[in-house]
Amino acid sequence: MDRKQQHIAIFTTASLPWLTGTAVNPLFRAAYLAKDGETRVTLVIPWLSLIDQKLVYPENITFTSPKQHETYVRRWLEERTGFTSTFDIRFYPGKFAIDKRSILGVGDISEVISDEVADIAVLEEPEHLTWFHHGKRWKTKFRYVVGIVHTNYLEYVKREKNGRLQAFLLKYANSWLVDIYCHKVIRLSAATQEYANSIICNVHGVNPKFLEIGKKKKEQQQNGTHAFAKGAYYIGKMVWSKGYKELLELLDDHQKELAGLEVDLYGNGEDFNQIQEAAEKLKIVVRVYPGRDHADLIFHDYKVFLNPSTTDVVCTTTAEALAMGKIVVCANHPSNDFFKQFPNCRTYDDRNGFVEATLKALAEEPALPTEAQRHQLSWESATERFLQVAELDQAVVKKPSKSPSKHFASTSLNLKKNMEEASAYVHFLASGFETSRRAFGAIPGSLHPDEELCKELGLVTPMSKQG
């Protein structure tokens, strides 16, 4: 099937102005898939009522209507890509789960796309989108469903109370749901949970602004200008699990070897005050600042990006730092495998390796990236990789073969399909009762959108449906 005849619906778990990976990356994916002007793309993002917007969105940014929210998203995107996007934006009802620090869908979010145009669905975080899904089965609604695994949920769960047991149960729940609902699974790196029918490929790029910054820095280096006047920094959501714990421990344990080192940390998050207090106790100078956009002028002159985090799947800020021409010092971990192809990526295996890599990075000038290396970081390249590994033409209906040798294979496939459908029905039943939903961690009252969400999104209320 010609890709230009396809309708691609991208469902994701977050939206701007929340600057999380699942808000930003699916937005760029939609823009670049639709860039040819002929492929029909719809981005489906969560709509939150005002009380939840205040809990999630930074700087007191709120929206009174989906239209106002859409205008904000499109303006933000256009400022970064430099072109007007042609994809559609639709909203599904969502609620913010404070305990999970996540937005969860309410009701059957697949209904946002009408049956007449339901062709290909891309589920950004398929496990997250299907944990509490109660409605039409994704594989029934859409001809082909691709899941893109962004988050290492097992790693986060392990850090909680009874974490090992929770991670064990979650691993099997995720595998079960992703198998039921997805034809194909793309894992951004080997740092994610393994799934059947999955392939590892980083299908994310960087905001074009970072490549522009890198281009200017390259020109400065070629002209003999001192392009990087500042030393080391790190930027990320300011919670201990995002690498701050590891970084401060490394700096604390090696204060002698790293004497004279100064590090600036930037970020917003619930652990900001604790991280600031811990940093002040070190002999090494570690300054802690509120978060800013990574493309801000203040970051251009830093030479070394220190990122010891191992909870990311593919760290967006690492890619951005490389795009800006900086040296990155990061852990030798599956989440960083994609970055090893770049000469400015320096990995370390242990604490001594971190010290050695950091001192060497500070003493050297970053290597000049080639155009091919710069292209690898772009969204154009990420879109090419996505189209290659997603195999969106796979689900074209083929005529059944009459060959007797294929009879057993056909029977086997039918058996698998029947078992899968039975399994999906079990999930449908379990997700349809408030008590079982609550037992598995769903937000109370999230089986159907409440009156407020229905009014804001122009949906028919559950009571009206019944009537």
Please tell me about this protein's structure.
- There is one protein chain.
- The chain is α/β, with parallel strands linked by helices and 467 residues long.
- It has 18 helices and 14 strands.
- The protein has helices at residues 21-33, 50-56, 66-81, 126-130, 138-141, 153-158, 163-181, 208-222, 244-253, 272-280, 316-323, 351-363, 371-376, 379-390, 407-430, 434-439, 451-457, 462-466, and strands spanning 7-11, 40-47, 88-97, 102-105, 120-124, 144-149, 184-187, 198-200, 230-235, 262-266, 285-289, 302-307, 327-331, 345-348.
- An eight-stranded mixed β-sheet has the order 4-3-2-1-5-6-7-8.
- Helix 1 crosses helix 14 (379-390) and helix 7 (163-181) packs across helix 15.
- Residues 396-410 have low confidence and may be disordered.
What share of the residues does DSSP label as strand, in percent? Answer: 15-25%
Number of helices: 18
Please, what is the average pLDDT?
Answer: 88
Tell me the Rg in angstroms: 23 Å
Would you identify the regions where 5 or more consecutive residues have pLDDT less than 50?
A: 396-410
Structural class: alpha/beta
The main sheet comes to: 8 strands, mixed
Helical content (DSSP H or I, runs of 4+): 25-40%
What is the end-to-end distance? 42 Å
Number of strands: 14
Strand order of the largest sheet: 4-3-2-1-5-6-7-8
Coarse morphology: globular
